[in-house]
Design goal:
Strand order of the largest sheet: 1-2-3-4-5
Number of helices: 7
Helix content: 40-55%
Strand content: 5-15%
Shape: rod-shaped
Radius of gyration: 46 Å
Number of strands: 5
Oligomer: single chain
Structural class: alpha/beta
């Protein structure tokens, strides 16, 4: 009788459904944790690139350590260690997100007192009467005329010149209660006030500003057509010489009847 040859029994590890299910469950958990960690680490890398270098060094060290150890690791142990490493990385990333990011410009050092005094806006202070009006800015010239009005007894004196002033630079009430509207023209000696300037002022001083006395003051002079137009409209013109006399107190306020400083 012959013997029937039988196949040798396979003595390897038997298939375990429970272990396989646990392995894939742990693998899925690790992938989910890795996704959240990668999302958190992306923000950390943008704000603190040095953390990316540190984490890469840690991962490389772990891989090298495992490469030197030649023993086989079970699937459960690999999943457990991977989860622990991801948990530590996630905790480090969240701690880094909680810390305030350093300023890219470095620490703020307060400037010493007075370091920027030369760039601060300058407030125009009132100018005392009798000064050289040619050396003043337009704003200071308006303030100087307002000072003269106050000195000679006007009330409710206001400097209103600026954008949209419609020709009125200074407004006040004369000592006898009339409304005074003044336009200031700080011109050079060779630049006279022309009739067009008078016409623009004459179109607003009475109808818009309701002036009882309209006064135009200049550091220059007036052309003949300008003086003629002023006489027709009742505007008082004060030229350079009349302004000097008024400023020095040698002439009364130009709004006074028969004032020496007014050209009519």
């Amino acid at each position: 009788m012959y013997r029937r040859r039988t196949r040798p029994e396979y003595r390897g590890r038997r298939f375990d459904l429970r272990a396989t299910a646990v392995f894939f469950g742990l693998l899925a958990t690790a992938l989910i944790v890795a996704g959240f960690a990668a999302r958190a680490l992306a923000g950390v890398v943008q704000r603190r690139p040095v953390w990316a270098v540190v984490l890469l060094c840690v991962v490389a060290a772990i891989l090298l350590a495992h490469g030197r150890r030649r023993r086989r690791l079970s699937a459960a142990r690999i999943a457990r260690r991977a989860g622990e490493a991801l948990e530590r990385g996630t905790s480090t990333a969240l701690d880094a997100l909680d810390d305030p990011a350093p300023s890219p410009l470095g620490p703020v050092i307060p400037a010493p007192a007075g370091a920027y005094d030369d760039v601060l806006p300058t407030v125009v202070a009132p100018v005392a009467p009798g000064v050289a009006h040619d050396a003043l800015s337009p704003e200071q010239f308006e303030a100087a005329i307002a000072d003269l009005c106050v000195r000679d007894g006007c009330a409710r004196v206001e400097v209103v010149g600026g954008a949209g002033d419609l020709g009125a630079d200074v407004t006040a009430l004369t000592p006898d209660g009339r409304r005074l509207v003044v336009q200031c023209k700080r011109y050079g000696e060779d630049n006279k006030v022309g009739s067009q300037d008078l016409q623009r002022f004459g179109g607003t001083c009475f109808t818009v500003h309701e002036a009882d006395v309209a006064l135009i003051v200049t550091t220059s002079d007036f052309t003949a057509p300008a003086v003629e137009y002023a006489e027709q409209c009742g505007i008082v013109c004060v030229n350079r010489d009349a302004l000097l006399a008024w400023s020095e107190g040698r002439a009364p306020g130009p709004w006074a009847a028969g004032a020496d400083g007014a050209e009519a």
